[in-house]
Amino acid sequence: MSHHTMSAREHGATHDGRRRITGIGRLLVFVYGVLALAATGRSVFQIIDRFDEAPVAFSLSALAAVVYIVATIALIAPGRTWYRVAWITISFELVGVLVIGSLSLFAPAALGLHDIDPFGRDATVWSVYGMGYLFIPLALPILGLIWLRTHRPLPAAPASAESGEGAES
């Protein structure tokens, strides 16, 4: 069936996943992808080079990298399941930024950090609320959750409507 002859429900269902990454959504996915690469590179270097100096902080840095990778994929992938995965990972990211950011400011020793320099050797992507990354790690999950809220996937069609279409007049 041509896309010109599909019903509105069918047409919307085929574009369900892609509608999250139109317009500003593309910029959001791009920034998530850049942070995924940056956090992955930083955490791999820190773990290989000096893991024994701050194992908790560097492990959390690696966790942040995984969160950014999964969030990027979830924002791109179509379907309700990936939409839920995006909500979960981006919500986790926001909590992580707030908790790690607070700990890095008020109890850096709990993370194994020697100081709170957001540009220092021990800093992670979420240290001091992402100050070393221009606070993008703090703003991004807020924007991501707003984006997801305004770009929900279409509701699933009832089974009876699908099986009965065009069967009888």
Write the layout of secondary structure elements.
Elements: H1 8-14, H2 24-50, H3 55-76, H4 80-106, H5 136-150, H6 159-164
Helix pairs in contact: 2-3, 2-5, 3-4, 4-5
Residue share in helix: 55-70%
Q: Name the average pLDDT.
A: 83
Oligomeric nature of the chains: single chain
Low-confidence parts, pLDDT < 50 over ≥5 residues?
5-18, 164-169
What is the end-to-end distance? 19 Å
Tell me the fraction of residues in β-strands, as a range.
Answer: under 5%
Q: Could you explain the architecture of this structure?
A:
Residues 5-18 and 164-169 have low confidence and may be disordered. The chain has six helices and no strands. Helices cover 62% and strands 0% of the residues. The radius of gyration is 20 Å and the shape is elongated. The chain has 169 residues and is an all-alpha fold. Helix 2 (24-50) packs antiparallel against helix 3, helix 2 runs antiparallel to helix 5 and helix 3 runs antiparallel to helix 4.
Defining traits:
6 helices, 169 residues, elongated, mainly alpha
Summary, kept brief:
By secondary structure, this protein is mainly α.
